[in-house]
Amino acid sequence: MKKLTSAPALFAAAGAFLAAGLLLAFLYAPVDASSMGFSQKIFYYHAPIAETALVAFGIAFVAAILYLRDPDPKWDRLSYVSVRLGLLFSVMVMVTGMIWGKAAWDAWWAWEPRLTTFLIVCFLYTAYFVLRQVVEEESRRATYAAVFAIVAFIDVPITFFATRYMPEGLHPVVIRAGDSGMEGSMFLSFMISMAGMTLLLAALVRADVAAARLKDEIDDLKTRIGG
Amino acid sequence: MGFRQFMAILRKDLIRELRTREMLVSMFLFVMLALVIFHYAFGVDEDTDLTYFTGGMLWVTFIFSALLGLNRSFAQEKDEQCLDGLLLCPVDRVTIFFAKMTGNLVFLLIIQAVSVPVFTLFFIERSYLADIGLFLLVLLLADLGICTIGTLLATISMNTRARDLLLPIVFLPLIVPVLIAAVSATTGIFADGADLGDLAARLGFLAAFDAVFMVAAYGTYDFAIGE
Amino acid sequence: MDASGRDLSDAPLEIEVDGLRKTFGRREVLRGLSFSLERGGFLVMFGPNGAGKTTTLRVLATLLTVGQGSVRVVGHDVREDPMPVRRAVGLISHSPMLYLDLTAYENLRFYADMYGLEDREERITELLERLELSHRRYDVVRTFSKGMRQRLAIARAILHRPRVLLLDEPHSGLDPRAVDILDGLLGEIRDEHTFVMVTHHIQKGLELATRLMIVDGGKIVWEHGAGVAPDTFNSAYREHVQEGSVL
Lengths: 227, 227, 247
Description:
Low-confidence stretches of chain A: 169-180
Shape of chain B: globular
Oligomer: heterotrimer
Low-confidence stretches of chain B: none
C-alpha cells in the first residue's frame, strides 16, 4: 500500500489521468453548443482545479483541528502544506477563470460568485501566511495558524453564499456549464480530469509534507550542533 | 461567578476607555474624516443624490473604525502586562472572550450612534424613520459578527510582531460576507424602504454568521489566548 | 524543619514537579526539573539569568503550559485542572500587572471580583492599610511611584488569600520602606503558607529558605535544606554554575 501511495506513484497516476483528460477534452467531448464554443473546454481544468483547491483547504481544516487536539508538528506541517497548495490552485482558478472570461465574453473580470469567492479565498489564505510570518515563537505560530485555518475554512462557503445570493443589482451567474446536465462524453472527460487533479493534489501533498519534515529535521540538527 | 467576572472585565474596560477616551476619540475622528473624504471622492456636484451609496460608505467606515478599536482593546492589556494578571485568575477563557467582545460592541455602537445621524444628514435624501427598528437590527447583527471575528483575531494578533498590520490582513477577508449582507440590507432600507422578504433573508444570514462564528470562537479561544 | 523549627516532614506536599520540560520553539528552557515542596515550606531558587527560574514559576502559576512531565500544585494537576490551582496561587513578578488608568481601589476591586471574594470591600480596605496606600485609594495608578506600584502589586497578589505564593525577585525595585513592609508581611503569613521565591539577594534567600536550589541551564544543579552559611553557598554556586552560561 505504501508503494501505491508514494509520491512518485501518485504523480505517475496523476499524470496519466490528466493526460487522458486532456485528450478526451479535446478529441472526444463535443464542442460546446452554447455561445462559448471552444473556449468552454477550459472548464475541464477550471472546475476540477477549483474543487481540488477546496479539498486542499478542507484537509488543512481537519489537520488544524487535529493539531489543536494533539500538538504534533506533523499536523501543522500537513495543514501548512495543504494551505499552500490550496492557494496555488486558487490562483490557478483565477487565472483559468480570467482566460475563459476573456475568451468567451471578452472581459477579463466579472463579479460573479465563484470568481469573487476565489478572489477572497486568495486574500484569506495569503493572510494565513502573513500570520505565520509574524508570529515569532514556533509553538504559538502553529497554534494560531491552526485557529485561523479553521475559521477561514468555515468562512469559504459562507462567502460563496453571500456573493451568490446577496448583492443587489445585476450579477449574472455566468459560468453555468457545470449546472446544466452534461451529456455523457462531456461528463466522462470531466470526471477523468477531476480524478487526475485530485491525484495531483495527493501527490503534491505527499511530496511537500516529506520535504517539510526533512527541513524541520535539518533545522533541528542545526540547532543542536550550533548549541 | 462567571457573570460576576464577565461584568468585572467589562466594567474595567469601559471605565478605562471612558477615562482616557483614546479609542473613542480616534474612532470618532476616523469616521468624520471618512465623511469628508467620501464627499470629495465621489466628485459630484451638490445636487447628486448619494443615498444609494450611503450604505456602502457607512459600512466601510464602520469596519475600519472597528479595526482601530479592536487593536487598542488588546494592546493595552499586552503592553501593561495585565494579560498575565487576567490569566492568573480562575476565569474561563471563554468568559474573557465574551466580556472583551461585548466591550468592543459597546464602543462600536457608540461610534455608530454618532456617525449614522451625521451621514444621514449629509448624504441621505429620504427619510427612513419608518424602518428605523429594522435598521437597528441590521446594525446590531452585523456588529455582532464584526466583534466576534474581530475579538478572536485581535487576541491572536496582539501576540505578534506587527500587530497593527496583521489584524486588518486577517480580518478583512473574513468579514466580507457580513459586509455584503449589511450593505445590501442597509442600502435597501435607505433607498427604497425595507422590503421584508429581502431583509429577512439578510438578517437571517447575519444571524447565522454570528452563531457559527461564536461557536467557532468558543471552541478555539483557549488556544488563541493561552500559552 | 522550617524557620521556626517546626517539623515539616509530615506536612502534605503542596508542590510536586516531576520531569518538567519546556521548550520555546527550538530552545529547551527546562530540561527535566524535579522537586517537591511541602506545605509551609519556603523554597528559594538561585541561578544565572536564563536558567529557567522564571519559567518554572510561570508554569506553577499556570501561565505557561507544561511541555513534558507533570506538575501538581495543591494536589491538582496544572494541565488537567488549572482552576483550583489558580485560586490557590498568587504571583508577584517584575511587572505589577496593574491597570495604570484605573485607581488603586478599582484595580483591587477588579481582581476581587475575578477571584470571587465574598468580603471584597473589607479585604481591600484592610490590604490598602497594611501596605500604607490608603491615602491613595482613589488615585489613578499612573500617578504612583514605582515603589507604590509594587506595593499595590503585593496587595493584588495576596488579595485572594492564596496558599501558595510565587515571588519573582520581589525585592527588586522596592524602596527601603516597601522592603520592610514586604518582609513584615511575609513574616506574618509565613505559617500555613507555601512559598517559592526567585532571587539574587543571597542573604535574604538564605535567611528565609527551608529549601535551597540552584538552577542552571534548565536543570537543578545543587540542592540543600535550610541552615546554609553564605560562604558554603557561594562556593557551591561557583562550583556548579558554568561560567558564561548567562545567555
